[in-house]
Target: Luciferase family oxidoreductase, group 1
Amino acid sequence: MRLSILDQSPISANQTAKEALNESMRLAQTGEALGYTRYWIAEHHDLPGLACSAPEVMLSYIGANTKKIRIGSGAVLLPHYKPYKIAEVFNMLATLFPNRIDIGIGRAPGGSAEATNALSDKFLQNVWRFPSLINDLLNFLDNTFPEEHEFSKVSASPQPEIAPVPWLLGTSEKSALLAAKNGIPYTFGHFMSDNDGSFIVQQYLDHFKPREQTQKPQIIVTVSAICAETTEKAEEIALSSLIWSIQKDKGDAHQGVPSIQDAKNYKLTIRESEKIESMKRNMVIGNPQELKRKLIELKNTYKADEMMINTITYSPGDRIQSYRCIAKEILS
Model:
């Protein structure tokens, strides 16, 4: 089973943003050493506790400090930008780091309404135009605009020897069908969805239309997972992330991911306790053997080619150890 990493570059309560970003680079290096297939970093805007607003900047830094692991965005939020600029940026990354670059594409705002307005004047219109934006981006990457198109003579330079690979990220049937229609790989966000994911992924498989004759559908499923030597330890470590989610919902997450002790001391209402139990059902928490069993179950349920793991902890060491435990159990 192939495993990969999705990093949201969380900032813990005792960290600066710079420290969090350096931990992201360390995580990519560790993932490479452990045999993870790819490392993707997310895009967020003005969200307390999340450090990365520009994946393309971090990918340059991470690419220069790693050697072979595939790196990409998870996701670049296309409605904020012109497809041509995204094609230029990722073609440049693919030129610098040959055969290593993925473009994970999303359509969420990635921040508050105010941050969205500060980024772009026509975000909602571009959400409606998302299929067209995807089509333009793919044409810029492949140089496949028809001759009569206004952009047919425009090149997204530099032109890499091996083009970056586009992936569409989503949690809905609409996103799955859009990926299938365009013949590109699909990533389903299990960790952020209450939808029937297996049905959605099956829609992608059933409707896939390859862009090239030899092309086959590809599926990554992203899960939130925390692994430790014992189930009890994993549950304890996971509490920081769970309490932080509660704090974010209340607009009280400005201090970053809380320590395990602060998470234990947090006074939960009955409703918040119920919400935590609900969130845990959408996570994979446990010892290495439990993680392996649950990840294999999810892979089989989704018919996935690869499982991508998102892990948020207070301690960077606990996060590294979680990925290490999973890799030792599955990749060794």
